[in-house]
Structure formats: structure tokens, C-alpha cells
């Protein structure tokens, strides 16, 4: 019998999309992170981020390491920005009633991609 992924446990794309919308509500208010999105098509960004977060939860969508590196290579993302993203992501998952062990698991998956995202 297959073990249920976090993606399945938390309701798939519909719920992950709501999490991502909440995530960006907070990020766009950040003085440090918000400016990264000034000239970005946010509906497209939310779609990409939903797929990315879904992949962190074991969902069907995924990005290769090379794609993640290319998507972020032109941005001056530093460790402090990445750390803030992690804090906001963890708080958002908590707001959406993810359990603490599941939040830790998602943040660990996110952390594994730090070197691909931070310039």
C-alpha cells in the first residue's frame, strides 16, 4: 500500500492554491521581499508557485534543479530573503492548519533548494 503524500493529505492543488495566495498576501507586504514582485504577472506567479509548493509536498508537478536555477538566476536573492521566505511559508502553512511535523517536512524540502534559488 502506498503512503499518502502531503499533497494528497492536504487536498491537492485546490488547497495548495489557497495557501499560495495567502503566502503572497504576506510577501507582497514585506519591505525586503515585496519589491521582487513589482513588475511580475502575479496570476502567473501564483500558478508557478502552486506547482512548486505542490511538488514540495510530493505532488505531481515538479521543477528540475536546472529550471529552478534558471528561474532565479537573474534575481539578487540573498540568504536573508530565503530565510524570510521560509518563515512566511511556515507561518502560512500553520495558518492553513498543517501539522507541525508536516510544516517541518515542507520547510526541509524548501531548504534543499536554497543553493538553486539564492544567488
UniProtKB/TrEMBL annotation:
Protein keywords: Heme, Iron, Metal-binding, Transport
Keyword GTP-binding: no
UniProt keyword Transmembrane present: no
InterPro entries assigned: Globin-like_sf, Globin/Proto, Hemoglobin_trunc
Molecular function, one GO term: heme binding
Amino-acid positions noted as binding heme in the UniProt annotation, renumbered to this chain: 48, 72
Pfam families per record: Bac_globin
Protein name, per record: Group 1 truncated hemoglobin
Source species of the chain: Hoeflea prorocentri
Amino acid at each position: 500500500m502506498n503512503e499518502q503524500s502531503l499533497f494528497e493529505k492536504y487536498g491537492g492543488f485546490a488547497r495548495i492554491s489557497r495557501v499560495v495566495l495567502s503566502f503572497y498576501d504576506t510577501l507582497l507586504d514585506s519591505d525586503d521581499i515585496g519589491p521582487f514582485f513589482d513588475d511580475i504577472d502575479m496570476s502567473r506567479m501564483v500558478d508557478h508557485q502552486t506547482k512548486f509548493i505542490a511538488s514540495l509536498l510530493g505532488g505531481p508537478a515538479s521543477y528540475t534543479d536546472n529550471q529552478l536555477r534558471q528561474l532565479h538566476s537573474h534575481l539578487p536573492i540573498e540568504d536573508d530573503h530565503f530565510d524570510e521566505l521560509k518563515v512566511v511559508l511556515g507561518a502560512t502553512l500553520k495558518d492553513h492548519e498543517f501539522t507541525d511535523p508536516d510544516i517541518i517536512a515542507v520547510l526541509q524540502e524548501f531548504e534543499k533548494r536554497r543553493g538553486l534559488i539564492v544567488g
